């Protein structure tokens, strides 16, 4: 006996389906390097934001250490690729090592501090994340310090790799797109993201998912009817850390560079928070919408403003206001408007529209 | 006489200098409904919290079938068969009535850790939850969020959550408080039904004397955190000490 979808929920699902289709065909639809970069970043951030939403939206845990786990995965793959040379064994070993470190740290933080009040837990995660950031810049022989590490990805992902060749030994083109290593790399990112997202979605609709929501809704009662709240919280904290770590490893393979700015900085943590709030907490679809909008804004708002500014060249004041240098100002305004008009996030608010009972 | 299913021994809790529950020893037997009475602030709810684990005792013990539960978390006590409904409605507000109940059924079935199948495919959980909805006459509200229910129905859902835990010990904390006259009998009938099961022990905090008269096999009186009287309803209700307590003429010496 399932509940009927609201019209809003149906609209959201259609939108998410469209986004998935666009991402699936991204290399053929948007044929420039920057667009593919954006598409890959969107894939990674959907997973990262969704895994954070497991904590904050489903279970009600506030953590500031999510980029730390992302960073463990990134640096794990990066260091392995740098030290062992490009190869799948390096990717696998690096990802495993990153995931193992993430799990150990998550279990330690979880068991020590998930019993305390939410605010103290948040502080502890903040401290752990700061330590990780300092360690990454101090252990420069391993991590490259502030400069980060550049390395090569497995040969399959080299732009010169030919996935399919015709009779003359030239790389085959589909819809004007050369089937080279870059395409393989993108689909590696896309497939990994899809699998991780599907696993998380499955988790949220399982019996365990209902327990997580129960803990968010009323922790004391969840405990009173027999759920061991600390154990469930520790589990979801570990699961989300694991997913973030794997996403980090995949992104490290894609970028072929890992440094504090791409994997560990608090700027990423703030991005994740903004995406989860914009999209809507406690719904996996919110992560998709939030990540898409935010990454698009980060990449294209400046271009858009530059164009607008030029188009309005004759008008007083407006070109100055729309100067591309002020893009963060406008992003801030857009964010405030979004929070004002969509208090439960875009997806959360839309899903309530047209509610049937 | 059957052996006690639940026992408290010198159960005590202090908040700073204030002793809210003071060396309360009592034993409760299967098939017996004990009403716990006393004026406001007597420590009735605190006594419940000590038994179900929301508060940790300063000293003394809680025993269930001989097992010492004193240091255990509420969830562990729940799995040992201690079930509790709360005086102030304590639900999962954003979840539907059915989902609320299913959570309790699922906890009882021990399937909270299942992650491989969607919850919709656990048909037996949903079916069991629907049975409890029917028993509490909430079926027509199954898909309403708990927060949207009128107070009387929220109280019924509170009781339904306890029923769905299928505990050995049922603890009701003023189950009909604030309920309209047409809702209260539903809940009282449910309690009467539970009482007919010789394996179940029922503890009931209640102020309404007619309810106590109808349901209780035994009454214990708490006053200023201490056990003041313990006995059959007729005897307790007629005793001078209880009248004094309820009329507010009890002095500190009697406490």
Automatic annotation (TrEMBL), chain A:
<keyword id="KW-0472">Membrane</keyword>
<keyword id="KW-0812">Transmembrane</keyword>
<dbReference type="GO" id="GO:0015658">
    <property type="term" value="F:branched-chain amino acid transmembrane transporter activity"/>
</dbReference>
<feature type="transmembrane region" description="Helical">
    <location>
        <begin position="266"/>
        <end position="297"/>
    </location>
</feature>
<dbReference type="GO" id="GO:0005886">
    <property type="term" value="C:plasma membrane"/>
</dbReference>
<keyword id="KW-1003">Cell membrane</keyword>
<feature type="transmembrane region" description="Helical">
    <location>
        <begin position="328"/>
        <end position="347"/>
    </location>
</feature>
<dbReference type="InterPro" id="IPR043428">
    <property type="entry name" value="LivM-like"/>
</dbReference>
<feature type="transmembrane region" description="Helical">
    <location>
        <begin position="119"/>
        <end position="139"/>
    </location>
</feature>
<feature type="transmembrane region" description="Helical">
    <location>
        <begin position="42"/>
        <end position="70"/>
    </location>
</feature>
<feature type="transmembrane region" description="Helical">
    <location>
        <begin position="12"/>
        <end position="30"/>
    </location>
</feature>
<protein>
    <submittedName>
        <fullName>Branched-chain amino acid ABC transporter permease</fullName>
    </submittedName>
</protein>
<keyword id="KW-1133">Transmembrane helix</keyword>
<feature type="transmembrane region" description="Helical">
    <location>
        <begin position="235"/>
        <end position="254"/>
    </location>
</feature>
<feature type="transmembrane region" description="Helical">
    <location>
        <begin position="184"/>
        <end position="215"/>
    </location>
</feature>
<feature type="transmembrane region" description="Helical">
    <location>
        <begin position="90"/>
        <end position="112"/>
    </location>
</feature>
<dbReference type="Pfam" id="PF02653">
    <property type="entry name" value="BPD_transp_2"/>
</dbReference>
<dbReference type="InterPro" id="IPR001851">
    <property type="entry name" value="ABC_transp_permease"/>
</dbReference>
From TrEMBL, chain B:
<protein>
    <submittedName>
        <fullName>ABC transporter ATP-binding protein</fullName>
    </submittedName>
</protein>
<keyword id="KW-0067">ATP-binding</keyword>
<dbReference type="InterPro" id="IPR003593">
    <property type="entry name" value="AAA+_ATPase"/>
</dbReference>
<dbReference type="InterPro" id="IPR032823">
    <property type="entry name" value="BCA_ABC_TP_C"/>
</dbReference>
<dbReference type="InterPro" id="IPR027417">
    <property type="entry name" value="P-loop_NTPase"/>
</dbReference>
<dbReference type="GO" id="GO:0005886">
    <property type="term" value="C:plasma membrane"/>
</dbReference>
<keyword id="KW-0547">Nucleotide-binding</keyword>
<dbReference type="GO" id="GO:0005524">
    <property type="term" value="F:ATP binding"/>
</dbReference>
<dbReference type="Pfam" id="PF12399">
    <property type="entry name" value="BCA_ABC_TP_C"/>
</dbReference>
<keyword id="KW-0813">Transport</keyword>
<dbReference type="InterPro" id="IPR051120">
    <property type="entry name" value="ABC_AA/LPS_Transport"/>
</dbReference>
<dbReference type="Pfam" id="PF00005">
    <property type="entry name" value="ABC_tran"/>
</dbReference>
<dbReference type="GO" id="GO:0016887">
    <property type="term" value="F:ATP hydrolysis activity"/>
</dbReference>
<dbReference type="InterPro" id="IPR003439">
    <property type="entry name" value="ABC_transporter-like_ATP-bd"/>
</dbReference>
<feature type="domain" description="ABC transporter">
    <location>
        <begin position="6"/>
        <end position="249"/>
    </location>
</feature>
């Amino acid at each position: 006996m399932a509940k009927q979808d609201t019209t809003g929920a149906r609209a959201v699902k259609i939108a998410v389906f469209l986004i998935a289709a666009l991402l699936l065909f991204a290399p053929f639809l948007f044929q420039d390097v920057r667009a593919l970069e954006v598409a890959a970043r969107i894939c990674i951030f959907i997973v990262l934001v969704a895994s954070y939403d497991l904590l904050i939206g489903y279970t009600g845990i506030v953590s500031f250490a999510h980029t730390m786990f992302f960073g463990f995965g990134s640096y794990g793959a990066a260091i392995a690729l740098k030290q062992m040379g490009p190869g799948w064994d390096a990717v696998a070993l690096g990802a495993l090592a990153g995931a193992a470190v993430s799990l150990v740290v998550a279990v330690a933080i979880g068991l020590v501090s998930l019993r305390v009040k939410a605010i103290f837990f948040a502080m502890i995660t903040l401290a752990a994340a700061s330590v990780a950031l300092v360690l990454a810049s101090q252990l420069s022989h391993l991590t490259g310090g502030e400069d980060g590490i550049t390395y090569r990805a497995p040969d399959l992902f080299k732009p010169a790799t030919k996935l399919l060749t015709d009779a003359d030994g030239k790389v085959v083109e589909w819809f004007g797109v050369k089937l080279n290593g870059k395409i393989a790399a993108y689909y590696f990112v896309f497939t990994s993201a899809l699998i991780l997202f599907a696993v998380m979605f499955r988790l949220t609709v399982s019996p365990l998912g209902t327990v997580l929501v129960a803990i968010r809704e009323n922790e004391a009662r969840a405990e009173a009817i027999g759920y061991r709240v600390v154990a469930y919280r520790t589990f979801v904290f570990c699961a989300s850390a694991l997913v973030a770590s794997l996403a980090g490893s995949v992104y490290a393979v894609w970028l072929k560079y890992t440094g504090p700015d791409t994997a560990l900085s608090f700027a990423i943590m703030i991005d994740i928070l903004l995406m989860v709030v914009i999209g809507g907490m406690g719904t996996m679809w919110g992560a998709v919408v939030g990540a898409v909008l935010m990454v698009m804004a980060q990449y294209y708002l400046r271009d858009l403003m530059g164009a607008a500014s030029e188009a309005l060249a004759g008008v007083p004041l407006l070109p100055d206001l729309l100067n591309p240098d002020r893009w963060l100002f406008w992003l801030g305004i857009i964010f405030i408007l979004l929070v004002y008009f969509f208090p439960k996030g875009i997806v959360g608010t839309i899903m309530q529209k047209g509610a049937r009972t | 006489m059957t052996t006690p299913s639940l026992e408290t021994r010198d159960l005590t809790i202090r908040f700073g200098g204030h002793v809210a529950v003071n060396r309360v020893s009592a034993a409760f037997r299967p098939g017996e409904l004990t009403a716990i009475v006393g004026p406001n602030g007597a420590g009735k709810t605190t006594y419940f919290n000590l038994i179900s684990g929301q508060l940790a005792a300063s000293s003394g013990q809680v025993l269930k079938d001989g097992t010492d539960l004193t240091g255990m978390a509420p969830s562990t006590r729940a799995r040992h068969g201690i079930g509790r409904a709360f005086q102030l409605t304590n639900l999962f507000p954003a979840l539907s009535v059915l989902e609320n109940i299913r959570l309790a059924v699922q906890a009882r079935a021990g399937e909270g850790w299942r992650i491989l199948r969607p919850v919709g495919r656990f048909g037996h959980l949903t079916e069991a939850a629907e049975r409890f909805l029917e028993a509490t006459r909430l079926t027509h509200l199954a898909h309403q969020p708990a927060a949207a229910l009128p107070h009387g129905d929220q109280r019924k859902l509170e009781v339904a959550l306890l029923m769905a835990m299928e505990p050995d010990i049922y603890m009701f904390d003023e189950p009909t408080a604030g309920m309209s006259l047409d809702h209260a009998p539903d809940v009282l009938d449910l309690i009467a039904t539970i009482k007919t099961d010789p394996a179940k022990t029922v503890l009931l905090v209640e102020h309404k004397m007619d309810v106590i008269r109808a349901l209780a096999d035994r009454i214990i009186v708490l006053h200023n955190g201490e056990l003041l009287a313990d006995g059959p309803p007729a005897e307790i209700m007629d005793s001078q000490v209880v009248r004094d307590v309820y009329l507010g003429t009890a002095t500190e010496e009697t406490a």
